[in-house]
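Thread: "does anyone have the structure for this chain?"

Original post by V.I.:
We have the sequence but no experimental structure in hand. Need at least a predicted one for the grant figures.
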Amino acid sequence: MARSLMQSIARERITGQNRTGAVMVRLLDGFGAGSLVPSPTPGSVWRVAAYLALYGPTARHRVAGELWPDATQERALGSLRSGVWRIQRELPGLIDARRALLSLTDRAAADVDEFVEVARAVLECDTYVPADGSLLLRHSELLPDWHDEWIVVERERLRQLRLDALDALAGRLLARGSFGLGLQNALAALGTDPLRESSCQRVIQAYLLQGNTVQARRHYEFHATRFRNELGVEPAPFRAALVNLPESARALAG
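Reply from O.Q.:
Generated one for you, tokens below.
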């Protein structure tokens, strides 16, 4: 399973790289399409491209309802037609409007797809380690300046996907003896969610496996204090076990 999954990802990468005239839709850390970087205004027609990049082929009435929720269906569909026409005029080859479902064309690709594929591969295959570890380490946020409800929901989903993948990858790397890389992944997760207990545990494990007992103790004490101050609760049981760090190191590493 591991080999077939990695081969599938590799084939998709090669296919995408060899596509001639490919148009990249950028959704991470801001919107862009090809060489265009449109302003993310609330009524921007480029939301159509962003929506299709996230959700794939979608019925017109569904896209119109999501992007213009306060308008009547007739008016929303009219706005959608106008938006698609404008996008096709400014960036031909991005949207396919010839079929019943709207979609990006075969020439178009979205940066978020690679992120999702790698994160899911980490979670679905317990031996997979991505060749490019920086993809998950980068704290990329989905369309940070856009506030549509459908974007907020998807942004949180991708955030949780990244955190779960970072945690899983950190544990995998630590088990393989790659303590430094495991620590970097655990710290990246903790930087995104400072109160994530599983990430805190991974960081402490990494320090202990590196032989940095003092740093592990500091990390434990800092986060134990933060939990008490921000949540009003005592550290979870695994943290209480860290009071005697040297004795706990073997159990945590296992």
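V.I.: this helps a lot. Residues 23-110 form a domain with the Arc Repressor Mutant, subunit A fold (CATH 1.10.10).
O.Q.: and Strands lie at 23-26, 32-33, 58-59, 95-96, 101-104, 108-110.
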